[in-house]
Amino acid sequence: MTTINIASELTKFLADINNLAVKNGIKLYLVGGFIRDLLLGRASERCDLDFVLEGDAIKFAGQVSEALGWKIHKFSDFLTAKLEPEIENCPVREIDFAAARTENYPRPGALPVVKPGKLSEDWKRRDFTVNTLMIAVDDFLRLGERSARTLLCERIIDPCSGIADLENKIVRVLHPRSFIDDPTRIFRACRYSVKINGQIEAGTVDLIESAVLSDALDTVSEQRKLNEIKKILIDQDTVEIISLLYRLGVFRKFYLFEEDKFYQLIEALDYLPTDSAGHIDKLRVELGLMLFYYSMNYALRDQRFIQLGVGKKKTKFFSKIVNSHLSDGKMSKDKIEELIKLL
């Protein structure tokens, strides 16, 4: 029998937040990645928590922020708020609070127009079946710090057979228009499939390839695409995710990668620093992006780097380093280490 283990610090943390919710007459639910990682047996010491509730999520997040002394970021257009700790040694990296809601995409690639909705409607707007899983926090706390996985599964709300897909290691999209409405889901599909050591369901692959061929990614701002690439570069499975995106045609079509340079990039990404400290994460992203753009068509490189918000001065500096150190087209471990020193 598989046992789910939950750190006592996290249990207490969740209980404190749930007690505040109960005092305010709020039924609070955990949703998404935390549940997915628990079922996979990959719950980390410091996790991200995603909560959904019917009602004013931003107001409740403000109350939690005040109680914890955490920094809050409000996103009123999307009925969400994010909390970040101001202390070290916290069992949680960040918390997202979201109102149960419905979404409508006014045009392909646009950000959604959001309206408050019911919990029974909220799952329908999500991207993949494995992300529709949710559980009431009070039900979760009744499980205790050690519980049989079967008991956890019995209490999870699973409207789209997400548990079965997770067990079969399949990433399956919810809607046929999903990658047209929000093409950045293509990046997330690849991230999730690698994360669960699985594969993208065949019908979902067909929808991705169709979206790529129909130029769906052209409807999304460059900044949004690059934000997805940033997330990939921080991930410990960067090489596998980038390779999958390449095989699906994303980089060949939209970033004009030359095949020989792409495989040099894959080799170089293996040399990126992997420490979890914040400054190393930033360095990993900046260096990864520099290598990423080096593999692109030259005419697009500086333009895309500036669009990322790096700035013209730094872009010029990066380009100079890349051109001088990688002029022969080879990305050896020694050269990557030289670049790290310069940065």
Features:
343 residues, alpha+beta, Beta Polymerase, domain 2, 2 domains, 6-stranded mixed beta sheet, two-stranded antiparallel ribbon, 18 helices, 51% helix
Textual characterization of the structure:
With 343 residues, the protein is an alpha+beta fold. The protein is built from 18 helices and 12 strands. The protein folds into 2 domains: 3-162, 2-Layer Sandwich (Beta Polymerase, domain 2); 217-342, no CATH class. It has helices at residues 8-23, 33-39, 57-68, 119-122, 137-142, 149-155, 162-167, 178-181, 185-195, 202-213, 222-234, 238-247, 250-254, 259-269, 278-294, 298-307, 312-325, 333-342, and strands at 3-5, 29-31, 47-53, 71-75, 80-84, 92-99, 101-104, 113-116, 134-136, 146-148, 170-171, 199-200. The strands form 4 sheets. Strands 4-5-6-3-2-9 form a 6-stranded mixed β-sheet. It has a two-stranded antiparallel sheet with strand order 1-10. The protein has a two-stranded antiparallel ribbon with strand order 7-8. Strand 7 and strand 8 form a beta hairpin. The protein is globular, with a radius of gyration of 21 Å. 35% of the residues are buried.
